[in-house]
Design goal:
The protein has 498 residues and is an alpha/beta fold. The chain folds into two domains: 386 residues, Alkaline Phosphatase, subunit A (3-Layer(aba) Sandwich), CATH 3.40.720; 88 residues, Arylsulfatase, C-terminal domain (2-Layer Sandwich), CATH 3.30.1120. The strands form three sheets. It has a ten-stranded mixed beta sheet, sandwiched between helices. It has a four-stranded antiparallel beta sheet with strand order 13-14-15-16, covered by helices on one side. A hairpin with a 7-residue loop joins strand 6 and strand 7. Helix 1 packs parallel to helix 5 and helix 5 runs parallel beside helix 7. The radius of gyration is 22 Å and the shape is globular. The protein starts with 16 loop residues before the first helix and ends with a helix. The N terminus and C terminus are likely disordered.
């Protein structure tokens, strides 16, 4: 177990989370600044990167993607100031494998983590944070990790992050009023367990999302460039948990959409979980606006790439019905589906003077392309043995000369499902051994008409691709334990759908 010593006094309590993170991060900043005398970034300067990932936010939950009831003015402004993608895909239809694809550049046919099975990244699983840290970036993770438990090789500090505050475990991340968070600071690695005093004893006084936002503000303030000679780019992975449901609270009260206040939707004639969900998304939007203002105030605007996305499609949890707000937009399916609604996600990229303003792109790409794209934009190289390709040209408004022949997903919580996209064609195998479904996304974005029987040649191409799209894994597909000798550990993995 990690050191879980709970320190007393203002420095180590969460009574003043801003002060805590400011003190924690200042130490790292002093160390980083001192190193700049001998390590000055060459011209052109590497951009800082703010990667914001919402949790279970649907394709249709934002105004800029067609939402009419939930207010998201700041994220909508982000889209107007940058590029909005309409065919960007998450790494998976649930959290852990989706984030694994985002961090490692591997799709779920090759990644180690292919489901919510409680696995931790291995020592040789190379991450985006490791890549950027080796290239001179100061790296931070705030929020939900889900790719490494205690005493494993997948801990954030072992995967390239200089600083971390948040949840290691996905189930722990359901708790919006947790009484503790994990944190890591390279200068004080022994302080790994921080109590949130206000939430001790079952009280709900400190909303964890607010802690994450304040921590992000502090990270940006402290790691801003003091001068040209003291410039060091940062990479901040801000992994929010909104609007994921607290599934444990749902069992207790029927409403797992936890939020301090349902404003500005208190007077709407909606079911309470829907009011809460809307308030959660608007709160997320407000905090995105706050972070953008910090970036502008500290004159980081022109050389900071801001990326906003979600880890998978909308959920039907916490008492919420995704149909109420049409959270998947025109798409079929939700979280845990390999139909478009489960994997196609909002994606906005903003970088003034580099990414064209107000552009909408329908070029298909996926989370595993993030690593090579950011590597090229940071003037470094991504590993060659990954599934991703650089989308830099698309981001910069140029012709994308290299494109994927296929995008691929597999999912293991409901048997073994596969899906792939080839151009405008989308194929899906509902279960192992079953016939493929085929859809033309250009004319049928809602995947309503299965045209497999009319296009046998296209189906044959997908069938051939599926045979070679994946590598074998000892953990996936998940197999039921033998009837004569149940494997309790494996069964526990199967049931751990966070």
């Amino acid at each position: 177990m990690m050191n879980k010593t709970v320190r007393s006094g203002w420095l180590f309590s969460w009574r003043w989370p801003g002060a805590l993170l400011l003190a924690m991060l200042t130490i790292g900043s002093w160390c980083a600044a001192g190193a700049q005398n001998n390590q000055r970034s060459p011209a052109p300067r590497k951009p800082s990167i703010l990667l914001i990932v919402a949790d279970d936010l649907g394709y249709g939950d934002l105004g800029c993607y067609g939402q009419t009831k939930i207010k998201t003015p700041n994220i909508d402004a982000l889209a107007k100031e940058g590029m909005r993608f309409t065919s960007c895909y998450a790494g998976s239809t649930v959290c852990a494998p989706s984030r694994c694809a985002l961090m490692t550049g591997l799709h779920t046919g090759h990644a180690y983590v292919r489901g919510n099975a409680g696995l931790s990244l291995r020592p040789d699983d190379f991450t985006l944070a490791e890549l950027l840290k080796a290239d001179g970036y100061y790296t931070g993770l705030i929020g939900k990790w889900g790719l490494g438990e205690e005493n494993t090789s997948g801990l954030p500090q072992k995967k390239g992050f200089d600083q971390f505050v948040g949840f290691l475990d996905q189930t722990h991340a359901h708790d919006y009023y947790t009484d503790h968070l994990f944190r890591y600071d390279a200068n004080h690695p022994e302080y790994t367990f921080s109590a949130i005093v206000e939430n001790q004893g079952g009280f709900k006084r400190r909303y964890v999302h607010d802690i994450f936002t304040q921590a992000a503000v502090n990270f940006i303030r402290i790691n801003k460039a003091d001068s040209v000679n003291h410039y060091r780019p940062f990479f901040l992975f801000l992994s929010y948990i909104i609007p994921h449901a607290n599934n444990e609270e749902t069992k207790r009260s029927g409403n797992g959409m936890e939020i301090p206040s349902d404003e500005p939707y208190s007077n709407e004639p909606w079911p309470q979980p829907e009011k809460n969900k809307a308030a959660m998304i608007t709160k997320l939007d407000s905090d995105v606006g706050r972070l953008m203002q910090e970036i502008k105030d500290f004159k980081l605007d022109d050389n900071t790439i801001v990326i906003f996305t979600s880890d998978n499609g909308p959920h039907k949890e916490g008492g919420n019905d995704p149909k109420f707000f049409q959270s998947a937009g025109p798409l079929r399916g939700i979280k845990r589906d390999l139909y478009e609604g489960g994997i196609r996600v909002p994606m906005i990229v903003r970088w003034p003077k580099r990414v064209p303003k107000g552009i909408v792109s329908d070029v298909p790409w996926a989370f595993w392309d993030m690593m090579p794209t950011l590597a090229e934009l940071a003037y470094t190289n991504a590993p060659k043995n990954i599934d991703g390709i650089s989308m830099m040209n698309t981001w910069l408004g140029k012709a994308q000369t290299n494109q994927h022949d296929f995008l691929y997903w597999e999912f293991h919580e409901r048997g073994f499902q596969q899906a792939a996209r080839m151009g405008d064609w989308k194929a899906l195998r509902p279960q192992a051994g079953e016939k493929l479904e085929l859809y033309n996304l250009k004319t049928d974005i809602g995947e309503k008409e299965n045209v497999a029987a009319k296009n046998p040649d296209v189906v044959a191409k997908f069938e051939d691709y599926f045979k070679k799209a994946r590598s074998e894994s000892p953990d996936f597909p998940i197999k039921p334990p033998p009837a004569t000798k149940p494997d309790e550990d494996h069964a526990k993995k199967v049931s751990a759908t966070k």
